[in-house]
Design a protein that fits this description.
The protein has about 210 residues and is α/β, with parallel strands linked by helices. The protein has a single domain, classed as Rossmann fold (3-Layer(aba) Sandwich). About 45% of the residues lie in helices and about 15% in strands. The protein is built from 10 helices and 7 strands. The strands form 2 sheets. A 5-stranded parallel beta sheet has the order 3-2-4-5-6. α7 links the parallel β5 and β6. It is globular, with a radius of gyration of 16 Å.
């Protein structure tokens, strides 16, 4: 995906994006992949005049992002949207009677579709859509797959439907975990990236970007 000298970037999502950002500072990027990506881009392209925003909020599900989309996305008028959502749509419903049911996957798909429809209707066409991901440590995380995997499939379908750049993090984390072990990438919960996990996301983004000086 091409990006340009004066682009405004928005990182939107849940706690993985949030990563302890200072919400009193609208330009604070937290300590995770949003911060790392911005640092790398500023270092690699010193002639760039980029603006970066982080609007990740810990605990958010897809419907939470939809509810705050106007203020935290559309009003900022980003040129590039980096969007990661989905793990809490599974995690917050573990043990529910409808966990893993098809209707839950359909609901997630329609919510993310509404988000992308609003975003593209406002002229945002450069979107990096990141898969939610999960590693099998602790071992009970494997039981989450029945609910999460359909959501990952939805993200892939929606990336094609809306011409987004897909970032296939689930497979990338799984591959890296074979060599490094899951705890090296997502610590003790299989979800929240360690520094190495955030570096993996950062590199996945950088590998899909191409700078054009204009």
């Amino acid at each position: 995906m091409e990006f340009y000298q004066k682009d405004t970037w928005l990182f939107l999502g849940d706690s993985i994006t949030d990563c302890d950002r200072n919400r009193q500072d609208p330009y604070d990027l937290g300590h995770g992949f949003a911060h790392m990506t911005a640092d790398q881009l500023n270092h690699m392209y010193p002639d760039g005049d980029f603006t970066f925003y982080n609007r990740g909020i810990g605990g958010n599900q897809s419907h939470d992002v939809l509810a705050r989309l106007q203020e935290d996305c559309l009003d900022l008028k980003p040129d590039i949207l980096v969007f990661l959502i989905g793990i809490n749509d599974t995690w917050h419903h573990v043990g529910a009677a409808d966990f893993g049911f098809a209707d839950r996957g359909h609901q997630f798909e329609e919510t993310v579709r509404q988000i992308l429809t609003k975003v593209t209707a406002n002229g945002m066409t450069r979107i990096l859509l990141l898969e939610p991901f999960l590693l099998p440590y602790p071992v009970d995380r494997t039981s989450w797959r029945v609910d999460l995997d359909p959501k990952i499939h939805c993200i892939r379908q929606l990336a094609a439907e809306f011409a987004c750049q897909l970032v296939p993090l689930d497979g990338m984390f799984a591959e890296a975990a074979v060599a490094q072990g899951p705890q090296a990438l997502t610590g003790e919960d299989g979800v929240h990236p360690t520094t190495a996990g955030h570096q993996l996301i950062t590199q996945a983004l950088l590998d899909r970007l191409s700078y054009t000086d204009k």
